[in-house]
Design a protein that fits this description.
By secondary structure, this protein is α/β, with parallel strands linked by helices. The protein is about 40% helix and about 20% strand. It contains ten helices and twelve strands. The strands form three sheets. A six-stranded parallel β-sheet has the order 6-11-10-9-8-7. Helix 9 (about 245-250) links the parallel strand 10 (about 235-240) and strand 11. Helix 2 packs antiparallel against helix 3 (about 90-120) and helix 3 (about 90-120) packs across helix 4.
Length: about 280
């Protein structure tokens, strides 16, 4: 569950503050320049926390005089009305950073919460829930980290760290065998996966030496047949319309992975709030 680099978090926060604060917080100017304040962030619903480092960096960039005392850690399961952290410092800075901090914390905690729900659905089966590249633009590594905080796992990070041969790649290459052969010749040390749409294509992929196969939109019965056909010769990943209420039966077919775009694509922010105190 390693954090993205400090450099990446700094860049995420700098972009967010630039779009939110710009040349200055005009409303915060109405408050006393020497005023001090106290606040706490609370959860207004159950969930899984993610995003502490981004909140810390926001106030580090805005005003190092702000102090944050965390009472929870990334990956913690939260109860409703739980205090996540307490903040003290210049009141203008607290108000200026409020929305940017909550935007990161709510979005990443929302992602972690969904990942936790999906991972829990297949617990004990040996099957792993994977994310995809269907992420919020600019927040790829942040959301991938949130997925891990929720107990699920990462697929490839981008187009640069693994090969996923899909239908159009197969068409352009000429065949499943040709596509796999090119991958082995050009990038022999990179994880290569190939997508198939039916059992006949799976047979072809296995015969061509595929070591990991994505089973696209297979029925549950077809997934069982695929596991029997593969007999451990290749890792199998189920994908396509993987709704939460179907996950358990898919996992119990014996596939190694289930990839779910909804972990990062259908993001609903966790309901959090910053409350100021006397």
């Amino acid at each position: 569950m390693n954090l993205p680099s400090a450099e990446l978090i700094r860049a995420d926060v700098a972009r967010a503050l630039a779009e939110d604060v710009g040349a200055g917080d005009l409303t915060a100017d109405l408050l006393p320049a020497d005023g001090l304040g106290r606040a706490r962030i609370i959860s207004r619903e159950p969930g899984v926390l993610c995003g502490r480092a981004w909140v810390d960096e926001i106030f580090r960039q805005l005003d190092p005089a702000v102090r944050i005392e965390w009472q929870t850690a990334d990956g913690d399961v939260l109860a409703q009305d739980q205090t996540l952290c307490r903040l003290t410092g210049p009141v203008r800075s607290l108000f200026t950073g409020e929305r940017t901090a909550l935007n990161f914390l709510q979005t990443l905690s929302g992602t972690a919460t969904v990942a936790h729900t999906y991972a829990k659905a297949v617990a004990g089966t040996g099957c792993r829930i994977l994310d995809t590249r269907k992420t919020v633009p600019g927040l790829r590594l942040a959301q991938k980290y949130a997925v891990r905080c929720g107990g699920a796992h990462n697929h490839r990070i981008g187009l640069f760290d693994a090969i996923l041969i899909k239908e159009n790649h197969i068409y352009a290459a000429g065949s499943i065998q040709a596509a796999l052969q090119s991958a082995r010749q050009l990038h022999p040390d990179v994880m290569t996966e190939i997508e198939v749409e039916n059992l006949e294509q799976l047979r072809e992929a296995l015969d061509a030496g595929a070591r990991r196969v994505l089973l696209d939109n297979f029925s549950t019965a077809e997934l069982r047949q695929a596991v029997e056909l593969a007999q451990g010769r290749a890792e199998l990943e189920a994908s396509g319309n993987m709704e939460l209420d179907r996950l358990r039966e898919v996992a119990e077919t014996g596939v190694d992975y289930i990839s779910v775009g909804a972990l990062t694509k259908h993001v609903r922010a966790l309901d959090l709030s910053m409350r100021f105190e006397d």
